[in-house]
Design goal:
Chain lengths: 124, 195
């Protein structure tokens, strides 16, 4: 008969390697929502069915009571960005989180934005 | 009472924009981020598999997940609608695949130069030149290092006269602010020139 106690330490050992993929059920990239490292996310609802969520997703909802970038969520949870994106895209799909895409400068950035950035840095 | 469907209603979500801080290992990237960021620099990691999905199958995944790239970054709140993130680019050349995602949509870049090892910032200069990403060179003046004039640095890096070269002390907030202001002004000038 397998000794359950002997399994404990073993799974602890492999934990850091396998854990991210267990959290996302093996998925490495979300199919539906395109999230950037600096997409800003915020928790959207109070009526959340926490029992249906991964513990990390519950933590994400707590972190995102104020607007945070995907990179910040990743840093605070100590979970790689790629995994956070998948966890977040589930939450977005369920309406629990709202996301705003970053400004992209593939087209020239507007003068208003540049002026705002200059003013913001000046105020530091 | 009606159920509270959305607690966020009209509250605006800020949008974000980013500036890259590049340069060789030990040039002071994290120091610069730390001196201007409103938060202590955070570090996040990106899985290697993110960039190698097409060659993935389940075997060997465990090994690949152990390869991660640490990214240091800081944050500056510009206003209610805009947040600026500063990302230090990974210095090691084997992590260059990360740069493309980092560079995508960035406002511009600061290449931090250490005059004691100037050659370590050549690859960064090449990277931004090839992709036409606006950048400036900031010479981090380390204690005890020989002081070069900005023109000497410009010549050594063979960058065009249009690229600003500034001297800085990455440890000082005022100096870090000047570096960022120079970059944003440089970007603004480039935008004006194309309109």
């Amino acid at each position: 008969m397998p000794d359950r106690h002997s399994l404990g330490p073993d799974s602890e050992e492999v934990g850091p390697l396998v854990r991210p993929y267990i959290m996302t059920l093996g998925r490495q990239r979300s199919d539906t929502v395109q999230l950037d490292m600096i997409s800003v996310v915020i928790a959207a609802r109070a009526d959340v069915d926490e029992m249906s969520l991964e513990p990390e997703q519950v933590s994400i909802l707590e972190l995102c009571r104020r607007p945070l970038s995907v990179a910040e969520v990743s840093a605070h949870l100590d979970v790689p960005v790629a995994v956070v994106k998948v966890l977040l895209s589930d939450l977005i799909g369920r309406g629990y989180v709202l996301a705003r895409a970053p400004y992209t400068t593939q087209s020239p950035v507007s003068r208003d934005i540049l002026q705002a950035v200059l003013d913001g840095i000046q105020r530091l | 009472m009606a159920s509270n469907d959305s607690d966020r209603g009209a509250e605006p979500i800020p949008s974000a924009i980013k500036i890259l801080i590049a340069g060789g290992f030990g040039a002071g990237k994290t120091t610069l981020v730390g001196s201007v960021s409103e938060i202590s620099p955070l570090s996040t990691e990106e899985l290697m598999t993110e960039a190698s999905l097409d060659v993935d199958d389940t075997s060997g995944v465990e090994q690949k997940t152990t390869t991660t790239v640490a990214l240091d970054f800081g944050r500056i709140t510009i206003n209610d609608d805009l947040v600026l993130y500063l990302f230090g680019t990974p210095g090691q050349q084997r992590f260059w695949f990360m740069w493309d995602e980092l560079a995508l949509g960035s406002l511009g870049a600061v290449v931090l130069a250490d005059t004691r090892r100037l050659e370590t910032c050549f690859p960064s200069v090449d990277f931004f030149e090839r992709r036409s990403i606006p950048f400036i060179v900031a010479v981090n003046c380390f204690d005890g290092a020989h002081r070069y004039e900005s023109d000497e640095v410009r010549e050594a890096l063979s960058i065009s006269s249009g690229v600003p070269v500034v001297l800085c002390d990455a440890r000082m907030r005022e100096s870090g602010k000047e570096v960022l202001l120079t970059l944003v002004q440089h970007v603004a000038a480039a935008v004006s020139a194309t309109v």
